[in-house]
Amino acid sequence: MLSISLATCILQIKNQLNQHLEINIKPFDMVIGAKGSPLQLVLSSVLHIDNPTGNILLKDALKISKNPMVKEVIPVSYGDNYKGYRILGTYDTYLKQYEAKLHEGKLFEKSFEVVLGSYAAQKLNLQLGSTLVSAHGLADNTLETHDEKPFTVVGILEPTGSVIDHLIITNLESIWEVHEHGDEKEHLEEHTEEHDDHEKHENEHDEEHDHHEQHEDEREITSLLVKFRNPLATLQLSRYINEQTSMQAALPKFEIERLMEFLGIGFQAINSIALIILIVAGLSIFINLIKTVRERKQELALLRTYGASSIQLLQLVFFEALFLSVFGFLLGWLLGRFGAWLLSFFTQDLYGYSFEFSLPDNRELLILFLVTLTTFLAAIIASLSIFKLNVSKTISNA
Amino acid sequence: MLRTQSLQFSYQDSKNETLSFPDITIGPKQGLLILGPSGVGKTTLLHLLAGLLPAQSGDIFVANTHLNTLSRKQLDKFRGQHIGLIFQRSYFIKSLSLIENLSLRERISKTKNDRYRKEQLIMQLGLSDLQNKKVYELSEGQQQRLSIALGVIHKPKILLADEPTSNLDDVNCEKVISLLKKEAEICKSNLVIITHDQRVKSHFDNHIIL
Predict the structure, then answer these.
(1) Closest Cβ–Cβ partner in B50, B72, B104 for A305
(2) pLDDT tens readout for residues A173-194
(3) Are A398 and A298 in contact (CB under 8 A)?
(4) Which residue, A167, A289, A296, B48, is most buried by CB atoms nearer than 10 A?
(5) Cβ contact (<8 Å) for A305 and B44?
(6) Residues from chain B contacting residue A397 (CB–CB below 8 Å)
(7) Sorted alphabetically, which PROSITE patterns does this protein's record hold (chain B) (predicted)?
(8) Local structure of B183: helix, strand or coil
(9) How many structural domains are present in chain B?
(10) CATH number of the domain residue B200 falls in
(11) Confidence label for A44 from pLDDT (cuts 50, 70 and 90)
(12) ipTM, 2 dp
């Protein structure tokens, strides 16, 4: 039973993880970002769990969109959070990619209007009209907040089961505007460490002024999500970007497959442990059944004197085996689900992967089948002794 | 009705020793006491009569049915419906209650589930208050009475009892014998008792000594 719960729990977690990853990476064929680790780029820009590799210039990135094979590009920009939830600046087409629908309110139209993912809204306890002040960086902190530019919640999304549920989404301009201040403030702090408050204020005013004149061309984004018309273009274009530009292209599918390969070893190890436990469990069921038949030899012999045939006794043992395996499977399965559900609390907070209860899938049914088969094999061997049962001897030699 | 003819049996592990049994003939409702010291094959004879052991040679007729001609399965069925067995030691399904043991007995032998019969029977045997007790909670005397109930619940044609009194004191010995006789009479069955207990002798007209 325990082995079944372990095996189904692992399967379940693995499936759910795969499913989530699939949903999250499905909309995009390629991510373009600053040079660095491609896996990091995918993790940060698509799955939103890692730090970004750096920024790229919007105008460079948008050149890619002129390629005829590109169907759609969506720039994303981030770097701030609100209580640990990432604020993502992007086009509203980003939401369409995940088929996100508004639960209430409207989409962002102006700067500093945000739309909340369902989980983020629920966890942060924010409603339409609430305001929030972003903090610099991707981890929760209250030290570097952009107090002067609060965001207003204008919409809340329906749950999608994708990464969007955990995001705070706004337009690109908001991020730029906040970032101008963020940059400046950082900049400022570095420079004014020895200065007193009075000078700091003066300085701030100057720099703010400069920033307003920042040229459109220097706008930066974190990465560009690309969708192709034709999947064949993927390799060609990614090679071009990696070789000819200062940016890098990463393919989410490929990178996630690579990641799963790394994780796969872990899963495999646990899987094989579960398998070994399963075998041991099968053996113990087997031994138990044989023991049962032996211990209850007298009762079985008694049933024979009542007129039960050997076949009936056989049915008895088989029913017991069937009951054991099905009941064991059900209990184990429920325990496995429960375990996966418990684990999901951690994953939900850490990575935003929630657990959804699902009925047994094919592989779990295969486990049920194997368990039943093992038990039946055990029952067959155990029941051989039923045919050899010497009623007379068993009854008289108690 | 019980009739045997030149019955012989030998156990496989003692090749030289063949047990020969005297012919038995008893008419309807008659009782029979088979007496003999330990080790002469009393229990073997009982098991032969119940069809639990196959006879090596000779014929057994129980209620005009020739046991030797029945297949294993037919024999099981016949035993379940027409033969009642009471063993030296009490055997039950331990996890079931008194009344459940009786019901199980009925079900397996495919006799009808007769509530009235069961209630009547456990009343006669003084077990009415205990019917929902698990069998291991019963005293030895109560267990023995339950054995009798299990032996007669299906109104067998022939009731075979193996040393039913060996562990009992005189008072209880009397009680058990009279209970057995009474039940056999109610069921109109032949009562065959196998014992080495001389106390039982006076209760039966028909004796066979092995």
Answers:
(1) B50
(2) 777 777 665 444 444 444 444 4
(3) yes
(4) A167
(5) no
(6) none
(7) ABC_TRANSPORTER_2
(8) helix
(9) 1
(10) 3.40.50.300
(11) confident
(12) 0.80
